[in-house]
Predict the 3D structure of the following.
Amino acid sequence: MSSETPRAGDLLVRTGAVVFLVGAVATLATMAPLFLGGDPLPPAAWFVCMLMGVGFLISGAGVLRSVAEQRRQAGGASSASQ
C-alpha cells in the first residue's frame, strides 16, 4: 500500500479503468462468436462494448482534473515564494 495521499482525479482514473476493462471483456465476448462461427449476441451486448469509450473518457477527465490541481498548487507555490 502506498503512503501517498490520494490526489484529485485518482478515483476518476481508477473508475474509468474498471469501466474500460468491463467494456473490453464485453467486446471480446461479443466478437468471439463471430470468429468462432456461432450466433451473434443480442444488441444489448454490443451496447455494453461502448463502455470502453466511456471508461476512456472518465479516465481522461480524471487526468485533466489531476493536471488542473497540480497547476493550482504550482501557481500557489510560486506566488508564495515571491
Notes: The radius of gyration is 19 Å.
